[in-house]
Specification:
Helices cover about 65% and strands about 5% of the residues. The protein is mainly α and about 270 residues long.
Length: about 270
Amino acid sequence: MAQQYYVRQPNSDTARGPYSVDKLQGLAEADQIQPETLYFDEAQDDWVAIETNDALKAQVFPEKKRLTLRQKAEKSAAVDDSEASGEPRKRISVTDMLAAAEGDTAETRHVRRLERQRSHAAALSIPVIGTLLLISALSNLLPAIPVIESVIEESDPFLLLTRPLAIVGLLDLFFAVCVFLAATEIFPVLRLRAALGLGYFAFFYWSHYQNTGNPYDLFAAVSTVAACTGIFICTLTLNLFMLVTCAAVGLAGAAGFAYFTYLGPVFFTGG
């Protein structure tokens, strides 16, 4: 089956289609679409201009002499799907006309649904990523409170080097504040932080498990992988299903990391 395309003008939210390449050629000949007209690219999951796709542009706007007015009229007539197929013209109700005027048609509903899902995913990513970073910050800062107090009392920031995880906690706290303030420009930095955390901390706790046999170290390593994966994917995707799935995995991993490393003994055993 030939590929079908939805199209809309750059200054309009109303989409038309689906159209085959032949129908798009007819629209072009009737001057109803131009090279800057947008089409929905399923590969990019976004609207892009026809002129950015060399292959599609060459098919829809071939280099040839302008057609006569009679030929244009024939092409314009061919745009109507019912006439092209030989079927009787479909009667349009007032309800259909009002829905089309509001951009609420069968052709545009799936596009609007995708846009709504992406909007929900973008809104959900902020609290999820911020919460993941905040849990990580608390996990690393609470056990280092005595060291932080010494830094403040003695005005010696180099004391933090005796507790490197406190530095990680401070960075995560800073990142969490930025995320809650919707500073999404730091997402590439967060992906780097997640990748480094995934490589270092997972290996660190796995090595401890190999040496001590303590199952808490193994659980901490697994939790680190889940939490860092959640941060990485949630800063990368606008697919709602994938984001919700990775958010659940990441939050479970962050909570597990907090429990199996520091927060569990602090809150549940008084240690």
